[in-house]
Amino acid sequence: xxxxxxxxxxxxxxxxxxxxxxLSDQERHEIIDExxxxxxxxxxxxxxxxxxxxxxxxxxxxxxxxxxxxIGTDAADLEGVATFYSLIFRQPVGRHVVTVCDSISCHxxxxxxxxxxxxxxxxxRFGQTTPDQRFTLLxxxxxxACDRGxxxxxxxxxxxxxxxxxxxxxxxAYS
Amino acid sequence: MKISAETHxxxxxxxxxxxxxxxxxxxxxxxxxxxRKAIKELQPLEVQQRVKDANLRxxxxxxxxxxxxxxxxxxxxxxxxxxxxxxxxxxxxGTFKDRLLMEEAxxxxxxxxxxxxxxxxxxxxxxxxxxxxxxxxxNLNKALAEARAAGLLGKNILGSGWDYDCFVHTGAGRYICxxxxxxxxxxxxxxxxxxxxxPFPQISGLWGRPTVVNNVETLCNIPSIVVNxxxxxxxxxxGKTKDGGxxxxxxxxxxxxxxxxxxxxxxxxxxxxxxxxxxxxxxKKLKAWLPGGASTDFLLPEHLDLPMDxxxxxxxxxxxxxxxxxxxxxxxxxxSAVRNLEEFFSRESCGxxxxxxxGLPWSxxxxxxxxxxxxxxGDIEKLMTLTKQLGxxxxxxxxxxxxxxxxxxxxxxFRGEFEAxxxxxxxxxxxxx
Lengths: 175, 433
Ligand SMILES: Cc1cc2nc3c(=O)[nH]c(=O)nc-3n(C[C@H](O)[C@H](O)[C@H](O)COP(=O)(O)O)c2cc1C
Ligand code: SF4
Ligand code: FES
Known about the structure:
heterodimer; A: alpha+beta; 8 helices; 39% helix; elongated; B: 433 residues; alpha/beta; 4-stranded parallel β-sheet; 4-stranded mixed β-sheet; binds flavin mononucleotide; binds iron/sulfur cluster
């Protein structure tokens, strides 16, 4: 079983060659808002990356130098941050991201069966996206809802006590 | 038992069907009295003294006395910028208590963030919230906005001349962010590698300034301690243990009614499992349990009658940790449970120091082999050596030692299950030879 999501190789040398990238006004506006919370704007690094991801689904390489400039840090540093955190996606993901809790309480309450059912239903394994770009499947650590194991999130929605037999209904709500 | 502010200071306002109270509703049931009392009647050091009198111990896992932690913060007019950080990263597998407070009692969290900041003289507070807690983020931001609009937050709070604001900072994954110095790095916009201690954050933390990091549940105890005092707090544990207060205890795994409940500190695990969680599912027997998260040693059914407090569970060879138990049923494999735990720790290692970065994946490989009946003679000894090499004092932070706790205790109590995975392996090898 592969538990890791492949991260693209960091190609700092290529960053300058990336096609021109511009943040939308909305993105800029939200990032500036975020920067106001801190005496040092660098603290908005993760927040800014999350804003880009919210609008684009993921954080393309070309976004890194642009965001870095905005928050006054350098691209290499921000790249290091962007690759460290598991919920910053560095490659395109599907329209919906399914994260399945694989930690201990869910392991004890049916995680294995849920993973097998999800992989069969979607025809993909962890780290992959369905060919129709509808779902990306990822493992995640304890979602803090262990009393409702097994659990998973689809985008921002938490699903607890997930019965593999009821997956069609749950997945059907995400087109 | 009737639920009131006096008996259930953490959860008395919670009604999951109704949802969280807004500012007006919260004030109607005594909300923000702690803040008013602190600001109008008490000096910051007097608030600190109350917390010391209560002997409140940190609910983030280690049980460090909160009053003592605070007393290391430089005070006085020349102390400069100081920060309060709430550790709301709750990612310890098996733990789901802080979520309850933040989703269902956001104004309690906000009040706590203001009172605690007043006590240490902080200029800004941050709630470091894991990114997946979307409902918590929404509810907290709503509560913060209401508090700001009512003059409970911002400039000149309640006419006191004290300025303070508080923000929700959401993370983007990685368990190690919960370690307080890694959290500070993450909050500053860096990779979440832990920092060397000393200096402790109270002296040099966020942006090099004095910083207090406390857990959500720890902080949520502060407003009622300010209102009711230390003796009241100590009495909440009803003499079950020498520590005071209530605790959010919980149970997950194959129990009939898993959940999280506010109970007197020192309640026994038997009561938690059998009364509140309704016992094991399907009449199965309990085989082992984790007292408070993935990084605590397994205990056995024979330990069920111990009061769940920091010192007693330590003496029994484990740690109370977060106090939410995870139960393993008689027909579930300890080897695969431990393999699951070490996979978690291995994936979540920050990679900073070698024993942790290389040792944890190795433990996973060994455990997976044993789980598949392909273990080799000597594998258990190798695992035991790892528990020493990754133990306390050998690594940069407590992540790796924490990872070794369930492993060493599982081998101690259930060696036979590990040996079975090796005998099977040896038999196959003999046939092939
Ligand atoms: C690997 C690791 C992860 C941790 N995760 C958390 C966490 O998610 N939440 C938390 O409150 N404390 C966590 N802690 C403990 C914190 O470092 C710190 O002790 C705690 O926030 C202090 O708060 P308290 O004194 O109020 O208990 C973690 C510690 C380690 C070593
Ligand atoms: S023990 Fe592990 S998590 Fe802690 S600093 Fe070392 S590598 Fe990082
Ligand atoms: S272990 Fe799955 S939600 Fe906690």
